[in-house]
């Protein structure tokens, strides 16, 4: 094949957000749009990470992925990449990509040093919906801000990109290696099984035998909903083939380009079918719900864990996993190096860290901040309130890992009960946790697709308000006399303890005297308008008061938050789009 230098010009708006570049498919298919971003990425990397390198290209299989993979292969060849690895049919979950970068060794002993992940994660897919791309580094984690800033700068000055137009399209449906000859020698595309490296890694972390026993017990029942995302490609292999779950326990596990028209976001609003099966919400099926249910997002890095008629808040989930990891999961039997959470995530994990005397870190939203801590051996388990949980086995959050972690805890707690005795349920485990550590009542309100200008003004107003806590507390008094007072307000700023880099403007915080918190952030993953996220948290230590309904317990704080932010005034919205 030959190399063509194509003239191009900068295209506005290619700044990567919380997790890569996400736009409507219509935007991505514009001439040069994808090409500019990919070349900008190659140009942001040092030469040895491109020339002669092995790179992974795959994703959640959403609409436009197959075309994008062929374009990236041709551009990689032209830029001197030696080898491209593609999951069969272009499918690799985000955690599997991370595992492949870290673990996979090619037939000739080669290892990969980075990946283009094609996903817009929890955003819907299809011709009228979203596509996305992000770059992960040699540690298996998302490119740090230093690199994403460079990519963005490059997109603003790009003049040409390199592509091998005469390289034929590669059949990505068949496993095997295709070799081509180019100006700099051989170029290979290897298509491999999407699941095997990931499955192998999971088997090295968890005690599959004990989970198998749990799943085969007549006392236990299980259900997993992949929302037609890429998790389906792993669920069957792991839950059914390896662990013996029934086929009928898998819902929506066939990956689809448009996620079956749904919103592949595992929460109580969008995972409707699972929520109904678990006996939650209005549309309960009438049948006895399973003991355990879980769902994933489009690229399978998120998880929602449910018990029978019971929702586990993600902030609690990471705290509970951390509290039980050493006993229940072989990978952690030597102890935890430390734990970390994103700033808006509740302080449930903080309490566990304190009790177990573990190193603890609070980082900005987005998984890229955990990677440095893990690379430095400072953190084993981490999580976000946004249904993201994971560990240092890879450098991404990991939806199936989280399910296996929960199944491990259940298996451990029920070791003696499967033969005779009463099953310790998901709900029992959570209530027991609250009794020991106290409970962090938590909820998040999302206002999606708000006018971007209005969202900015709302945030600016909240920052301004922080200059006078007297005024803040005056407003609160006027709304609810039963809410404690604000003692500190700021914009969260993070100094990375490993490389010293500083990330500013990471969300507006109002901290209350009784430990309650209100946090306001603008989403960095949307593709249209703005999404305002409001995070509300209140700590209750008294075990006799940890059993309340969370929306009811948090109602006073919610009222205060809406007044302080003038939510309705600025956005015209009287209610959020999604409550989690
Ligand atoms: C959201 C979540 C954040 C998560 C990010 C990527 O970001 O809040 O916690 O890391 O999505 O998740 P934002 O900026 O929209 O709040 V995924 O599964 O979409 O890659
Ligand atoms: Co995701």
Automatic annotation (TrEMBL):
Its EC number is 5.4.2.2. Its cofactor is Mg(2+). It catalyses: alpha-D-glucose 1-phosphate = alpha-D-glucose 6-phosphate; O-phospho-L-seryl-[protein] + alpha-D-glucose 1-phosphate = alpha-D-glucose 1,6-bisphosphate + L-seryl-[protein]; alpha-D-glucose 1,6-bisphosphate + L-seryl-[protein] = O-phospho-L-seryl-[protein] + alpha-D-glucose 6-phosphate. It comes from the Eukaryota. GO terms for molecular function: magnesium ion binding; phosphoglucomutase activity. Pfam families: PGM1_C_vert_fung, PGM_PMM_I, PGM_PMM_II, PGM_PMM_III. Monomer. This is phosphoglucomutase (alpha-D-glucose-1,6-bisphosphate-dependent). The lineage of its organism: Eukaryota, Viridiplantae, Streptophyta, Embryophyta, Tracheophyta.
